[in-house]
Amino acid sequence: MFEFHGWIVLRYHTHDTNELLQDKAYKNFINYLKDADTERLSNSIRRNGQDSWTITGLHNHRSSYVLDIYKWVSENLPGSYGLLYMHDDEDAEYNNTFVVWKLVRGILTRETDPFLSPYVPVVEDEYGTRLS
Quick one: which of 4, 20, 11, 24 has its CA closest to 88? Predict the structure, then answer.
């Protein structure tokens, strides 16, 4: 199972608040999503002068499009920030952990998850464990 949950506050700049530039950047992102979000699992919201985007999903196998969206945002909306939590039980190295991707100031980095890892026993019991 490939599980992912993420959010991004979309900003063209870390401080500048030019509405026209923000609107253009947001529209470019929405246009990009038309092709990138192949499963249509995401949601964009514009509220109180802020733009945000969320995505969540459960696939049978890993798919790269989710991380590709984060990479695109890091390159095209460098003022954005957010997190992406991914768990892939078929990943030989990280099958018992959530991998966290942190997006801030145009840089996307892999981080260690302190909250939900190790997956077993924090989230799930060992296979074969019976309920009492």
Answer: 4
